[in-house]
Amino acid sequence: MVLTARGPRLIETHPHPGAEEVTQLLRLAHGTDVLAHALSAGLGLPAPVRKPPATAHAGLRYVDFPPGGGPPGAADALAAARALPGVVRVQLQVPPDATVRRAPTGALHHAYVLATGPTRPALTRSLDRATTLLHAPAPARRSR
Q1: CA gap 27, 115 in Å, rounded
Q2: DSSP secondary structure letter of residue 21
Q3: What is the pLDDT of residue 15?
Q4: For 83-137, what is each residue's pLDDT tens digit?
Q5: Which residue in 67, 69, 60, 77 sits closest to 134, CA to CA?
């Protein structure tokens, strides 16, 4: 909607569930499956039963790389970030060997980390560590 001199005006509408990572976050944090809710509402079926949250805390952190850079040592960084306690998913949205041309716009990001934790500090540590690994410079390769 846009507010015009004549009042509010509808420009566009396209309701849809959030991105996959948001859907996963809601499922982990609240036990809510928004896709199941959307389908049941659209088909006139009873609402799905809400499951207890899988964890005390869940969080999502988007990661962006500076223009001219990219995911350094992506394969190793991804494996290390995914192995961290509490990390549920690390998803790279650009090719591992890509060079980023410009900063992302809108809701587009280069990567994201989805994590859980028994406490907020534990969750924050998992997100911070995974993000740091994704931004760490690739180890220098020895020449022979």
Answers
A1: 12
A2: H
A3: 65
A4: 999 999 999 888 777 788 887 776 788 889 999 999 999 999 999 999 999 887 6
A5: 77
Q: Which helix (H) or strand (E) holds 35?
A: helix 34-43
Indicate the angle between helix axes 120-135 and 74-82, nearest 10 degrees: 170
The pLDDT value recorded for residue 144 is: 44
Q: Which residues of 2-38 are buried (b: 16+ CB within 10 A; e: fewer)?
A: eeeeeeeeeeeeeeeeeeebebbbbbbbeebbeeeee
Taking the C-alpha atoms of residue 80 and residue 76, their distance in angstroms, rounded to an integer, is 6
pLDDT at residue number 70:
72
Contacts of 56 (CB under 8 A, 6+ apart): 116, 117, 118, 119
Burial of 58 (0-12, 13-18, 19+ CB in 10 A): buried
* pLDDT band (50, 70, 90) for residue 51: confident
Give the whole-angstrom CA distance, residue 72 versus residue 137.
5
Q: What kind and span of H or E run contains 36?
A: helix 34-43
Token code pair at residue 111: 């990567």
